Amino acid sequence: MPQSTETALHRQAVVYIMLDSSLCITEMSEEAPLWADDPRSVQVGNDIRLGFPELVGAEADLQAVLEGNRPSLIISGISRIPHDAAPFFVTVTVTLYRGASRSMDTLVLMVEDVSKWMDEIQRRTQMSNDAIALANAMTASKVFIENIFDAIADMLIVTSANGIINAVNRATLTLTEYTSTELIDQPITLILPGEQLREGFTISWQSAPTEFRCVSKSGESIPVSFTRAPLDTEGHVLRGVVYLGRDLREQKQAAARISKLETENLSLHEVLRTNQDTTDIVWSSPVMNTLMENLSKVAATDTTVLITGETGTGKELVARAIHNLSSRSKTMLVTVNCAALPEGLVESELFGHEKGSFTGALQKRTGRFELADGGTIFLDEIGELPMATQAKLLRVLQGEEFERVGGTHPVRINTRVIAATNRDLAAQVREGRFREDLLFRLNVFPLHVPPLRERPEEIPLLVEHFLRLFSRRTNKHVTSVDPKAMRKLMQYSWPGNVRELANVIERAMIVCDGQTLTESKLALVDVSRQTEAAGTSFDEMARQHLLRTLEECGGVIEGPRGAAAILGLKPATLRSRLRKLGIERVGGGFRYTS
Amino acid sequence: MILAKICVLGEVSVGKTSLIRRFVDRSFSDAYLTTVGVKISRKLVRLEPDPSGIAADTDLQLVIWDLEGGHNSIDLSSTYLKGARGAIVVGDLTRSSTLDQLQEHIDRFRYVNPQGRVVIALNKSDLQTGAAGAIVDRWNDVAGVAKTICTSAKTGKGVDELFTALGMSILQDTGNAAEH
Ligand SMILES: Nc1nc2c(ncn2[C@@H]2O[C@H](COP(=O)(O)OP(=O)(O)O)[C@@H](O)[C@H]2O)c(=O)[nH]1
Ligand SMILES: [Mg+2]
Questions:
Q1: Which ligand 1 atom sits closest to the C-alpha of B30?
Q2: CB-based contact, A210 to chain B, within 8 Å
Q3: Atom number, ligand 1, closest to the C-alpha of residue B125
Q4: Which range, of A128-142, A189-203, B99-113, averages the lowest pLDDT?
Q5: Who has greater pLDDT, A90 or A401?
Q6: What is the rounded average pLDDT of the residues A389-396?
Q7: In the beta sheet, which residues pair with residue A410?
Q8: pLDDT tens digit string along A244-281?
Q9: What's the rounded Cα separation, in Å, for the pair A370 and B114?
Q10: Which run of H or of E encompasses A551?
Q11: Whole domain around residue A289: which residue ranges?
Q12: Which of A226, A272, A360, B66 would be a feasible disulfide site paired with B39, CB 3.0-4.6 Å?
């Protein structure tokens, strides 16, 4: 069985702390203080907020978790800088631990060391620092500009009140390619055709930086940012104007780079989240053997791969494995969950947009495709992609160039595409919801991950794997499973597949006291409800579940008690899912129409 | 003692981290250190009695959140902003674009914490040559901004005043709430 990666860091395991309803510590792992901001204050009986200040202000959310109105509270990527040890990062998760009765419910705080991920973000962010430091230094130098006239890299031009050039510095000459004799005594409009000369400036006149096109002797149009200030005013009469200009060409490139880094940074946050649950693929069955063989064959190529399989079968793990085994493994694997993107923003998320291309596009944004240039992009839930975006994706898959939203320059990238879906794309094609040509393009190398119920022989191995994995997380040493419990696990139909199995095991381990997991600790969904559900389509089950949840929430979607929070979805995602399933708001509630 | 979470917001490189370090550690560094993730600092402030008598000799423990600059996903930041009693929104006097973004940061904070108190820091005043009076006046008039202060994390000017002003505003809020 493949070993999951494990580093020797002493802070690797997760620690837990149990809290009572007034947020005081009732019980905790021995090492818990090591993860705190103030280790000395982490003691049984003390207020948790003394040692974990990130929980100050989170009282309302904690209360919601305790009352079962919210599944968990996660605060990720908090840095700790101990006096006597290296800095590290933690993610704090608070969930409900159900006691025998309501009044015995308690909160469990789990703290996990996420330094590995944050270091990676830090490393990438560092690269953008140099650019920022330079910009800061240049700002500061404005103060001393008069003294370092010629040494300065910025353009400096002095004109008379009516716009005739009196003096220029060396940077101006270099940029415009004129000699000083060619410029002196000429109107400023020679190099700044856009400048409008104004008369009768008063002493208070001063302008914010303005972007101009500066035209050089050879006719090149160069973006320059100019600040203009009045010179030597006497009795409110303008004597001249000082122009201070900066060549924007490099800055524009740097800005594009920073924007890419910011997007990367964001993706890493997502990686950070999804990776918390990621483990290696574990398999033993013949079907999975074949799958893994095919996987390693296709990994070595640049072929597009379409992974199909029910939810929870581990399609993302398969995608990651392909990436890791490929020649692109040293580069980024950018994961995009197409279902989680707000519908109106899918295209700009994937392909980027130019500043001002639509309301809210305040900055230029690098798309995920560009981000994955040289690497791999994983498009999860590809079946949810809007038709318009499908067309653009098709072009990219055909190796053509694409344009950012609102952009005019074509962009060409080299990205390997891996897509996944739990839908029947062929059926979607028939219903006119998915492009047939795109399906052909994607379907070059299909990999089907079989549902867990088709390979029950694998369950004991998976169970063993998760026992080991969660032993470290929960600090418990459960080593075996009672035969009766194992039989129950193998007979269960696992609609949620491997992910559900992992959840069941993790939950069972938290409530388990001894070394052996017994049947009573397994929280499997009632079997009678299972059979009732059999025969209904997946959509129908989802619909019923959503309607039930909405009803419980009184039709409220957003907010801590809203349906989105309870379902663990973003409100926008929930709304789009409701639309797709044909659930509409009718009066105060929701109903399935059509 | 009262515990209050506050956030420091603003564009990248305006001096958020520097202001916090000046206030908490009494130090300043020219090196640019990007904040990755979230750094939480704490400092006890003892507020002198104010004329209105509301905040007489109170100990307030400020739990200060230093967030990343730039626009990250709203989702991410609202988790971090949630539950804050106040915010210091920072602009850089030498870069007017960062001042243009102040309102956006205020709105984002207010969206999550409608009752939250806001003070504005116009930072790097040591580099600014012209008068900033007009900018201060403009922001003081904006609804919901308790105070606007010119600061320099480098020289320390205005920094204590800034945090104290926010602390006072939070305590007044607490005082008002207690009266009801
Ligand atoms: N001259 C001057 N420089 C400052 C001041 N505040 C910050 N800086 C510098 O500006 C840069 C960015 O500061 P930092 O605190 O890291 O910004 P943040 O991104 O907002 O946290 C650093 O190089 C600081 O040394 C200030 O008041 N005056
Ligand atoms: Mg910072």
A1: 25
A2: no
A3: 27
A4: A128-142
A5: A90
A6: 89
A7: A403
A8: 888 888 777 766 666 666 666 655 555 544 443 334 67
A9: 38
A10: helix A538-552
A11: 255-448
A12: B66
Rounded Cα distance between A437 and A388, Å, is: 13
Asked if the structure places residue A65 within a domain, the reply is yes
Asked if residues B173 and B60 have their Cβ atoms less than 8 Å apart, the reply is no
Contact A17, A4 (CB under 8 A): no
Q: What's A5's DSSP letter? A: P
- The predicted model gives A16-31 an average pLDDT of 90
Pick the more confident residue, A82 or A45: A45
**In terms of domains, do A19 and A43 share one?**
yes
What CA–CA distance (Å, rounded) separates A539 from A532?
A: 15
Residue A83's alpha-carbon distances to A12, A138, B25, B49, B116, in angstroms, are 20, 35, 13, 35, 33
Nearest-CA distance A220 → chain B (Å)? 28
A137 in contact with B at a CB cutoff of 8 Å? no
B179 in any annotated domain: no
**Of A297, A442, A300, residue with least CA distance to A380:** A442
- A563 part of a folded domain: yes
Chain CA centroid to CA A392, Å: 22
* Average of per-residue pLDDT values in chain B: 82
Distance from CA of B38 to the nearest CA of A (A): 5
**pLDDT at residue A259, rounded to an integer:** 65
Query: What integer is the mean pLDDT of A121-139?
Result: 57
ipTM surpasses 0.90: no
Domain match, A294 and A148 both: no
Q: What DSSP line would sit under A275-286, residue for residue?
A: HTT-------SH
Q: Give the residue-averaged pLDDT of A515-526.
A: 77
Q: Shortest CA distance to A13 belongs to which of A90, A83, A122, A100? A: A90
CATH at residue B145? 3.40.50.300
Is A539 in contact with A427 (CB distance < 8 Å)?
no
What tens digit of pLDDT does each residue of A275-290 get?
Answer: 433 346 777 788 888 8
* Residues at CB less than 6 angstroms from ligand 1: A 136; B 10, 12-18, 30, 32-33, 35, 69, 123-124, 126-127, 152-154
